[in-house]
Amino acid sequence: MTLPMLRRLLPVAILLLGLALFLLFGLERYFSFEMLSRHHAELASWVAGNIAAAALIFVLFYALAVAFSLPIAVVVTPVGGFLFGMWLGALLSVIGATLGSVAVFLAARTAFYDLFRARAGATLARLEDGFRRDSFNYLLFLRLVPVFPFWLVNIVPALLGMQLGPYALATLIGIVPGAVIYASVGASFGMLIERGERPDFGVIFEWHILLPLLGLAALSLLPVIYNRLRGGKAAP
Question: Which span out of 115-124, 204-213, 214-223 was modeled with the highest average pLDDT?
């Protein structure tokens, strides 16, 4: 393997190593509702007295969690709602998740785009052509529908040649609804802890919440459908 190839693979290798170490040492046990229940009073007190530093640490931690694809995002956003309130918690979560997604996108594009393009050849060229025309709307759709793995949606646009600007903007907008929902769940943590109850992290899949998200996702594809119909009418 050549030195340039090693340099291209280094960012992805670092991200994969971080994930492997996290799983190997079982660090996910420190990021659970049970752990928060034990230390919620001290944590809330420190955040209240150091709000700016706490917000910065939270954003950086969230960015690292997404960049390393750690399986704790479903807990981190609610914790943001608990510590900072629903709206500020959602905002900080969106910023952190977007920064982490951008890191994964850049690492994947640096490491795999040229290799993927060389292997796929004409097939990739056709996929790229179709995706790039409406890449913003396609990605917005994928972000709004809460069934696609977040880490996978971070990588696929990089392999299909999407530009960084539209990728970051579509990610920023597309994760807002989910962030608000999960932050609202976290805002009720204090009450749940007092009652000895557990939060429902599957709330986003309840129909009264899922259907509006699917409706927003469908709306995001309307420009794509319109362009396709207009293109078909314009064809000889």
Answer: 214-223
Measured CA to CA, the distance from residue 132 to residue 167 in angstroms comes to: 11
Total number of domains in the chain: 1
Query: How large is the C-alpha radius of gyration of the chain?
Result: 20
Print the domain residue range for 216.
3-234
* Model confidence band, residue 195 (pLDDT cutoffs 50, 70, 90): confident
Please give the Cα distance from 116 to 149 (Å, whole number). 20
- Listed in sequence order, the residues at least 6 apart from 187 whose beta carbon sits closer than 8 Å to its beta carbon are 81, 82, 85, 86, 89
Non-local CB neighbours of 147 within 8 Å, separated by 6+ positions:
none
Single out the residue of 121, 105, 97, 68 nearest to residue 183, CA to CA.
97
Mean pLDDT, rounded, for 17-25:
92
- Closest C-alpha to 93, from 62, 57, 50, 139: 62
pLDDT tens readout for residues 129-145: 667 788 999 999 999 98
Residue 2 amino acid letter? T
**How many H-runs (helices) and E-runs (strands) does the chain carry?**
13, 0
State how far the Cα of 207 lies from the Cα of 203, in Å rounded to an integer. Answer: 9
What is the Cα–Cα distance from 122 to 135, expressed in whole angstroms?
19
Of 210 and 73, the one with more pLDDT: 210
